[in-house]
Design goal:
Blueprint (H helix, E strand, L loop, with lengths): L1 H25 L6 H11 L5 H21 L3 H20 L12 H16 L8
Helix pairs in contact: 1-2, 1-3, 1-5, 2-3, 3-4, 4-5
């Protein structure tokens, strides 16, 4: 059962990160693409915006793919952790802990899950 649990966690977290990456990179799933995300990042002082949007989107997309697939899971987890740390330090950290106040609660939970799975391993059900 632990293998099914790990698969469920990896798929939900990994596919969600893939979606967020696709929003930033391609404008899919209601996202704004590189130009729109880059403009927003510039508006909050993160420059150069388009480059930072690309790095965030690529980290989320590649990290999500690796994490969901269970391939190079520590690398995927690292990419997820880095993007969440950047989100905390640039957006959410100043708002305190709770997500209801746009704080870093959710980001920290995702960091804990990514590190936990990286430490435990992906389980038996992996892409190859």
């Amino acid at each position: 059962m632990i293998n099914l649990g790990l698969l469920l966690i990896r798929l939900v977290i990994g596919l969600t990160f893939m979606g967020h990456g696709a929003q930033k990179l391609f404008g899919w799933f209601g996202g704004y693409g590189l130009k729109g995300t880059g403009g927003w990042l510039e508006s909050i002082g993160v420059k150069p915006g388009v480059l930072m949007a690309f790095l965030a989107g690529a980290g989320e997309l590649v990290g999500g793919i690796l994490f969901a697939a269970g391939v190079l899971t520590p690398v995927g987890a690292f990419l997820i952790v880095v993007t969440m740390l950047v989100a905390i330090f640039t957006v959410h950290g100043k708002n305190g802990y709770w997500a209801t106040e746009n704080g870093f609660e959710y980001n920290l939970i995702l960091i804990a899950v990514a590190i936990g799975v990286a430490l435990i391993g992906p389980g038996a059900y992996i892409l190859f």
